[in-house]
Amino acid sequence: MADSTRVSLIRRHRQWAILIAVAASLLIVAGAISLTIVEAVSKGPAFQSAAAFIRSDPTTRRQLGVVLGFGLAVTGPITDAGSGGTANISFDVKGSWRTGHVRISAVKQGDTWVVHGGVLTVDGSRYRVPCTQTSSIFACRLS
């Protein structure tokens, strides 16, 4: 008797169950789309230059291993005024050994963003990038 009561209760409120399921599905889809849009907008030309720089930086490679990817969030001010501009951005860097966080300063010259330098933070230690000293893995350590 209890099973038939449950079945009749579900049949009676079927419209609400369908409405809730559709609303939850729409909410998930809308969230995925907005996350994709935010990620695409925040990873513009200044980020692309910074990412290429970090991928090829020897200090980053020594501290993190091969760069596998970057975090979702890119933060910091970017000023783009036609043929000039500045960017001071921060983002996570995922390496094959461990993960770090980088702050990069770049300047726009013409249509190209040129990285001037930055600081890589790994496990509480900070390293200057690019580092011109190659005598040891700690030569560019700031703290």
Protein described:
There is one protein chain. The chain is α+β, with helices and mostly antiparallel strands. The protein has two domains: 2-39; 44-129. It is 41% helix and 36% strand. It contains four helices and six strands. Strands 1, 2, 3, 4, 5 and 6 form a six-stranded antiparallel beta sheet that branches.
Helix content: 40-55%
The pLDDT mean sits at 85
> How many distinct domains?
2
- Separation, N- and C-terminal Cα atoms: 72 Å
Q: Biggest sheet: strands, sense, closure? A: 6 strands, antiparallel
- Structural class comes to alpha+beta
Q: How many alpha or pi helices?
A: 4
| Secondary structure: number of strands | 6
Overall 3D shape: elongated
Weakly predicted, low-confidence segments: none
How much β-strand is present in the residues? Answer: 35-45%
Spell the H/E element sequence.
Answer: HHHHEEEEEE
The gyration radius over C-alpha positions equals: 24 Å
